[in-house]
Amino acid sequence: MGRELASQLGWRFADIDHLVEQREGRTIEQIFGDDGEPAFRRLECVAVRDAIETPEGGSVVLALGGGAFIEPAIQKCLRESDIPAVFLDAPVAELFQRCEQPGVNRPLRRNLESFRELYERRRPEYLKASICIDTAGTAISSVVEQIISGLNLVPFRSL
User: Fold this and answer.
1) How many CA atoms lie within 13 A of 16 on its CB side?
2) Which fold is adopted by the domain 2-150?
């Protein structure tokens, strides 16, 4: 979703989980196992700041993991940088399924019931996003159009 949005806008794209793994030379699962969630959240915050303040400049679409946006430091960083947050919602079972990727182990994705509890605890923070979009069964292109429209952005047009 984020990559497609960045492409449509002609902006940079940064996946925060990928940036953390790249910087640390370890997977998120390893970071959680070795150092714990609080250490991972600190690394995540640094990665968000770095992605925003990169010398490359220009506008950026950030892909945040499920726990990133609930961190007050990350919310503050986004606000101070005038970066609107978009909450992409869907039924919990669909979100759980989307998080299942070959070769990717998400430390807090254990089973559907614990995932549902985590989602319900986090949802009040998610609802603080600038816009909330129900993505249930919706094509990526349609969601991207809703984000562009909802945030009054101008798509990139090549000559």
Assistant:
1) 23
2) Rossmann fold (3.40.50)
Q: pTM, whole model, 2 decimals?
A: 0.86
| Residue ranges covered by each domain of the chain | 2-150
pLDDT tens digits along 28-83: 889 988 999 899 999 999 999 999 988 777 899 999 988 898 999 999 999 999 99
Burial class (CB in 10 A: 0-12, 13-18, 19+), 25: exposed
